[in-house]
Amino acid sequence: MKKSLLFLLAVTLLTYGCNNREPGLEADVEIPVSVEDIKLKSIEEFISTTGTVIPVVDVKLNAEITATYLLVNNPATGRTWQLGDKVRKGTLIASLEDAEFLNGVKLEVHELNLELTKSELEKQESLYEKGGVTLTNLKTAGYNYINAQYTVENARIQMEKTKIVSPFDGVITDLPFYTQGSEVAQGSPIVQIMDYAKMILDVNLPEKYIETVKVGQNVRITNYTLPDDTLTGKITQLSPAINSDTRTFKGNITINNPELLLRPGMFVKSDIVTARKDSVIVIPKDIILSRQRGMTVFIVNRGVANERVIATGLSNSDQVEVIRGLQVNERVVTDGFETLGQNTKVKIVK
Asked: Which end of the chain is more exposed for a tag (fewer CB within 10 A), N or C?
């Protein structure tokens, strides 16, 4: 009887002790993690650098004569030209009027003389064919006609000095103010025009990339004021020489800027694409752990985390190509992996 009571008491105490243990001591703890399904993606390796963009074409037009200044109207707006206006090649921007200068050019007189010398040459040619004049007479008429042509061309060049005309399609970026009808001196700046539908970026690249960067490689261009817009460019020139002081070499990037989003003088970041692969496994760079046995990541399979050794290929500042160790559609842990171990139970929260 005593033995039975003692056994019953022991069983009761054991049961009571088990029921009053702290919860979770024997239960498996599930670590919350975020995962990402592995899909095939594209990845690029690139070299980042910065610099200031300049326009492909930039010209300052100055007054070539001392004359009266008249800023003309922009035909597109009906008002005088303003900063930021787009201009077409051959468009008149301002005129410089000087009666004394025009009289000295004598364009109309020279044009009339050209007509007379042309008629005389045609007459001498006809007579020469009939034997009415000598070869010397014909050559003299020809000389006079050619000389008259040069004189007219020179007079027209002089007349062009009275017109400030855009030499190309572009945008007015500087327009010094002068009172309409006032006199401007020879050499005075009248207008500055830029064509920045294409831009140039000069960069200095570290010596170690001398064999990596090639003419024709694509370049992505970004600017902090244009966070949603990425422009494209290409490496167009590379210097073969290394600067002995900076240990860099010079490169030239041409940028397509059709919407004029980039402005001359902007500071930009350029990513020179040196390699690219499509349809490969790509994962975030910051989820890779460095172990004695190599680089590893965690994947989740049936609620359990497994550590995988991986081999990598192309990489950039954010992503890495995985060439061995992972399969498409596996789920890789992207957050919460720091406390995981092999076969740790996990709970996917995202």
From this structure: N
